[in-house]
Write a structure and sequence with these properties.
The protein is an alpha+beta fold and 156 residues long. The chain has a domain of 74 residues: Ribosomal Protein S8, Chain: A, domain 1. It has six helices and three strands, in the order αααβαββαα. A hairpin with a 6-residue loop joins strand 2 and strand 3. Helix 4 packs across helix 5. The longest helix has 17 residues.
Length: 156
């Protein structure tokens, strides 16, 4: 059993007219170099299905923020693979961020940087419609009602 664990088999296919020792050595070096590289997976925003296909266990965090787009820039900076899902069962809707468990430290750093940036950002101006409603209420409260002058005309 121990011998089976220690042994690994690799298949190398070389197509050529003449196989020399140098060609074989060069092909073996290229193969070993490629085998040492970590597998390249998609990094950044992706679907939950793609994230689960990568074989890592998933964790999630629930976010109340509507502005999830700002987080994507920071997550790309920290090479975090994540998937977003919106939960409409609550009002306002919440976002669930799924990520690989091995990316937990990088995700924590990304959330920390993102939240610092959100706190430093100036408060947003209210929308034009909400400002218009506010001014309508203000105009109604300041307008004096028109007094009825009666039938006869001029009163002094």
């Amino acid at each position: 059993m121990q011998d089976q664990l220690n042994e690994k088999t690799a298949a190398l296919y070389i197509k050529g007219a003449k196989l020399t020792g140098r060609t074989l050595a060069k092909a073996m070096r290229a193969f070993l170099k490629k085998a040492r590289e970590p597998p390249k997976g998609k990094v950044g925003k992706q679907s939950i299905r793609t994230l689960t296909k990568q074989g890592a266990s998933l964790s999630n965090i629930t976010i109340d923020s509507d502005n999830i787009g700002g987080f994507q820039h920071v997550a790309r900076k920290y090479n975090v693979s994540y998937a977003l899902s919106r939960d409409d069962s609550e009002n306002p809707p919440k976002w669930v961020v799924f990520f690989k468990a091995k990316d937990a430290d990088a995700l924590t750093a990304a959330f920390t940087e993102y939240s610092k940036g959100e706190l430093r950002r100036k408060p947003r101006k209210p929308s034009l419609l909400s400002r218009l409603e506010r001014f309508k209420k203000l105009a109604k409260s300041r307008a004096e009602p028109v007094k009825n002058r009666g039938k006869g005309g001029h009163e002094r």
